[in-house]
Amino acid sequence: MGFLRFRAILSPVLLAYIDEIGETGAFVSRDDARYKTSPAFGYAGFIIPADNARAFGQAFTENKRTLFATELAR
Fold it and tell me: Per-domain residue ranges for the chain?
């Protein structure tokens, strides 16, 4: 009696970074003095191999701290 051996086909694990994009303020009407920004909304993101996630996170954090130093200091 023979035995079947299954060989696993390994494919890379991918991670998706997805975020919402859009206007954070309220929309009342185009004529409102304060709340007249566009109510546009959507999703954006990208996919990277899981093996690159740590390096990407480190680079992102370093760049964020540099580029937004003024805002982060508040």
Answer: 14-73
